[in-house]
Design goal:
It contains two helices and nine strands. With 211 residues, the protein is α+β, with helices and mostly antiparallel strands. The protein has a single domain (21-184), classed as Galactose-binding domain-like (Jelly Rolls), CATH 2.60.120.260. α1 runs antiparallel to α2 (188-208). The longest helix has 21 residues, at 188-208. It is elongated and about 55 Å long. The two termini are 16 Å apart.
């Protein structure tokens, strides 16, 4: 009898769990990995490089830039994090992070975070601007509660490095705070499973009542 009750309860719980919120997988901070190696989570598009590199904690321009931490690090276009770029015209560096909402209700998704850049950055969710920042010595918050798509989504961090002839590195720093998304609306058979589980639980409970 106890085994039947547990099985029925598990069936009901499985169906109910479809409605629970989860964190969004794939929202990864910059610099998760080993300093000096590429950050595989962020794809880089620029005239200089196609690889984003994780910075070292104690090398320039860390100091003027926000200090690296155990949560996130700066990423730059080359292994020489202090390299000078864009001596005569401003450069554009687009760092792209992708995440997949397949199996989730995209309309329920939301996240918040903070970012910084040398020199300025615009963040786009699926090509729609959701935030911007200027400066590398302080954080700027950003968030989204709409504009998500079923399946693969993209976050583009479009960094502009202002022209300067010497002493002109560039980089990006991103940290995510909270995120949530609901599972996709259950199919009709899921509702049937839920109803069946609840009915079975009720039946088992009634049979256990003393006559």
């Amino acid at each position: 009898m106890k085994r039947n009750l547990l099985a029925a309860a598990a069936l009901a719980f499985t169906a109910i769990s479809y409605a629970h919120a989860a964190s969004i997988t794939g929202l990864v901070n910059t610099g998760v990995g080993i300093s000096g190696q590429s950050d595989s989570n962020y794809a880089l598009s620029s005239a200089v490089s196609s690889i984003a590199v994780i910075t070292y904690d104690s090398q320039w321009p860390i100091g003027p830039w926000l200090a690296n931490s155990s949560a996130s690090k700066w990423i730059t276009p080359t292994a020489g994090q202090g390299d000078t770029f864009d001596p005569s015209t401003s450069g554009i560096y687009t760092y792209t992070l992708s995440f997949d909402l397949t199996g989730y209700n995209a309309a329920s998704a939301a996240f918040s975070g903070r970012f910084a850049a040398d020199n300025s950055v615009v963040v786009k969710l699926n090509d729609q601007v959701i935030g911007n920042a200027t400066g590398f010595s302080d954080w700027t918050s950003f968030s989204a509660s709409g504009g998500f798509a079923p399946g693969v989504n993209t976050l583009d961090f479009v960094v502009t490095n202002w022209a300067q002839n010497g002493g002109n590195p560039t980089g990006l720093r991103v940290e995510f705070g909270s995120s949530s998304v609901m599972a996709a609306v259950p199919e009709p058979e899921t509702y049937a499973m839920l109803l069946g589980g609840l009915v079975l639980v009720g039946a088992v409970v009634r049979r256990r009542k003393p006559q």
